[in-house]
């Protein structure tokens, strides 16, 4: 069997997995890998989690899909729970992070048009990644991702990441700016966090200029940073928030949350999704939320994140010719490589040691292990990184 019938949109690695358990994956050749990737922050509860599996099995035997022509009680239940947890007003469900961010952009534009703007403009950040639909692709601050898909959409203006003065200048000088869209931590961009003080000042600036504050929490949400949502480390609440990835334990699902005032912008027919919010996805998302909101669960994520970060910082000191530093929050961690070493090299060396990771921008190796990872598995991950760094150091550069 080969992938010759597939569009070649991915640079796939020569490995295929047939089963998983917790933080472990077993490939078709029988080799076990410690998964420090979680399907790119999707399988937050690990692989084959009993609660997730039971929810899928039960709901699949009960009712998979009806469409949003009818009420979906499980959708209503999840919306109430998420809005209560995030201090928001209303929810809309789709199938992915790109769909969630696309909906956020649509809401912001419609909000602007209802204020009388002819061309509502959204401030976005350099280095951002918001998805691969045309609107989210345009909002993304990566020319490599955008190249070849021009013409990009109008209605976006870019500011340097973390530069509040630039946002303020744009808001002051462009009359039809309606919103500012940011990731609390840039994932694809290199695990770059926005300071809590910046988020507070951005909230104040948005209020001053009458802008909607939109958070892309697709990767940072659902416990990844040690809080249910990353912005909850501050006292800042957005007007709109997109989320997905870890929302349903590996099952495709996305959500957009908005305050009551902003959500009123959307009326019957203004947006929709055939598959979004189907009973199966909602059952799995509710089951996932049950686990994430258990007493002590997120506290344990914070402890695990600190343990992994401390161990990686020790390796930075040990391999100071290979590693530059560590950044991130909770179990969303980036290891910064020191040239001439590259994140691609370290990822390959770690895979040889049975550890799965993923690269990110700015020569960063990303670690996004399951939120359920234990101390023994963290030690094994650190040992694999240790050996991988040793192999790079001995290859003639370090």
Please, could you describe this protein's structure?
Helix content is 39%, strand content 18%. By secondary structure, the protein is α/β, with parallel strands linked by helices. It folds into two domains: 52-292, 3-Layer(aba) Sandwich (Aspartate Aminotransferase, domain 2), CATH 3.40.640.10; 296-397, Aspartate Aminotransferase, domain 1 (Alpha-Beta Complex), CATH 3.90.1150. The longest helix has 23 residues, at 375-397. It is globular.
Provide a concise account of the structure shown.
By secondary structure, this protein is an alpha/beta fold. It has 13 helices and 17 strands. It has 2 domains: about 50-290, Aspartate Aminotransferase, domain 2 (3-Layer(aba) Sandwich), CATH 3.40.640.10; about 295-395, Alpha-Beta Complex (Aspartate Aminotransferase, domain 1), CATH 3.90.1150.
